[in-house]
Amino acid sequence: MSMVAIEEGSLVSAMENRLPAREPFPPRRNSSEAGVTLIEMLVVVTIIGLIVGIVGIQVFRYLDRAKVSTARTQIKTFEDQLELYRTDVGGFPTTAQGLQALRARPEGVDQWQGPYAAHDIPLDPWGHPYGYTFPGQHCAADTNAPDTQNQTEHVCEEPDIVSFGADGQPGGDGINADIVSWK
């Protein structure tokens, strides 16, 4: 067995040369390099604000379209329920009885077999009640045209159901436009 004799001091110095010296803490940065500057933070906040603004506008447009679609669907559902009512009773509810006749038996209507609507009559998507008129003033596809042979005006046999849109007023454009059963 051969051993190389190494002096005690030379072994320690050889190990010190091979391993880098460790500092207890990382070096400090200059104050200009530390953290995030106010300008950088403002730029990031501005970019986030622009993205939220662009996306938000699109979301509101989709919400408006969804409300119009919901109103059309509810009106179609009312029409289907009113047909069931008419089949049982022999006619549509009067204007005074309204759509509530789909949920509760109107006074004096003995043939009522309802309720024809599973839930209470909803408000339109903007929180306004639906308008209901019978006999209607508008009929689908030329059935309200005057009778030229008898010179009399044809009476509409269908009810009118209408949502007055976001503003709750007759007429209007865009999101305020009426959504009706006869178109």
Word description of this protein:
This protein has 183 residues and is mainly alpha-helical. The protein has one domain: Glycoprotein, Type 4 Pilin. It is 34% helix and 7% strand. The strands form two sheets. A three-stranded antiparallel β-sheet has the order 1-4-5, covered by helices on one side. A hairpin with a 4-residue loop joins strand 2 and strand 3. The radius of gyration is 39 Å and the shape is elongated. The N and C termini lie far apart (108 Å).
- Alpha plus pi helix count: 2
CATH topology: Glycoprotein, Type 4 Pilin
**Spans where pLDDT lies below 50 across 5 or more residues:** 142-152
**Architecture per CATH nomenclature, i.e. the level-2 architecture:** 2-Layer Sandwich
What is the end-to-end distance?
A: 108 Å
CATH superfamily: Glycoprotein, Type 4 Pilin
Mean pLDDT: 79
Which class of secondary structure composition applies to the elements? mainly alpha
Name of the top-level CATH class: Alpha Beta
- Strand percentage lies at 5-15%
Name the shape in a single word. Answer: elongated
- Please provide the ordered H/E string of secondary-structure elements: HHEEEEE
Task: Profile the largest sheet.
Answer: 3 strands, antiparallel
Number of domains: 1
Summarize the structure.
34% of the residues lie in helices and 7% in strands. With 183 residues, the chain is mostly helical.
